[in-house]
Amino acid sequence: INEAIRKTLHADEQTILSEAETRQRSKLLDKLSPERHKPSFHEFLDNYINELTEGSRLKQRSTKRVAKSTIAIFASVRLNIDKFEEQEHVRLDWQDMNAVFFQSFKSFLTSKNLKQNTIIQYLQKLGTILRAARLMHYTVNDDINITQFCPAVEETENVYLPTERIIQLYNARLTDEAWIRERATKLQSEETKEYVKSPQHRTWLAEARDIFVVGCLTGQRYSDYIRINERMYESYNGRKFIHLRQEKTDVDVYIPLSGKVQTIVARHGGKIPYMDRKKLIRNIRVCGQLLGWNEPVSITVTKGSFSYDNNVPFYRMLKTHTCRRSFATNAYRAKVPLSAIMAVTGHASEEMLRKYLKLKGVERALFAAEELSKMQTS
Question: Is the pLDDT of residue 248 over 90?
Answer without folding.
Answer: no
